[in-house]
Design goal:
2 copies of one chain form a homodimer. The first copy, chain A, is mainly beta. Helices cover 14% and strands 41% of the residues of chain A.
Chain lengths: 159, 159
Amino acid sequence: MITADEQRQAQAYAAEQLAAAGIELTDSERDAIEVADFGLSRLREEGLIVLVYVNTDRYCAKELVLYPGQTCPEHRHPPFDGTPGKEETFRCRRGLVTLRVDGRELVLRPGEQFTIPPDTVHSFTAGPDGAVVSEFSSTSRDELDVFTNPNVRRGTVVA
Amino acid sequence: MITADEQRQAQAYAAEQLAAAGIELTDSERDAIEVADFGLSRLREEGLIVLVYVNTDRYCAKELVLYPGQTCPEHRHPPFDGTPGKEETFRCRRGLVTLRVDGRELVLRPGEQFTIPPDTVHSFTAGPDGAVVSEFSSTSRDELDVFTNPNVRRGTVVA
């Protein structure tokens, strides 16, 4: 659970980080920025801020924004509807992100990218200045994600 | 046909425009920027500069860079391999781009986007300051594009 204040602050932080990365948003996009605490109620440590540009039944593009040191908890994107599950490419735009994929760890700096195969466990953590990461992928079905921590809930409750 | 000089200039222009849009590239990406004159030998009027971030058998992401007033000639992305053809979302990052889709015309400014259905004729022209456009799409198979102008050749010959 997060408070309405935490949600507003996170949206404002994301809009500011995206602007600093040279990324312009429309007003309706700014209002649609999603703040996820994964049901863990410690947003600044484990969470993610997401702006979805487009998500069709063929492909998806998003911007991910992280607070300094914030981690998106370990998860995988399982097969669905006869597909092997979501395949995704992370491209760092600003700050630094440490990506852990199937036991391997790598650091992405602005201009660097990595493609995560479908159904492969991964987590990622922003550096000390936070991070902005573009995500290009096949269709996104966030509600199907399988998290390692059984306490995770994908839907975020705003108090 | 373009000259090696035209190619180098266009790559340098694209790198500069991408940097101005806040987009960082690796050295190998800078070297891989594709300059297309569509076989028409008047690059500044009809052409396109392309950086492919990723193109898997499921999705694709690119940056498109256009000179001021430059047009990408009318074409469509036909069905292939049992798919309906490439579906693509154009998101303007810098400058301005006028998009003509199936007889309809619309202008995209930074932060604005539009999704073009598969197998639908379209062309686009940059405004007076050029344009940077992010393209998110299903798999890209440029060699299959069908152009309205029969003189177009998708492969660019560098003299």
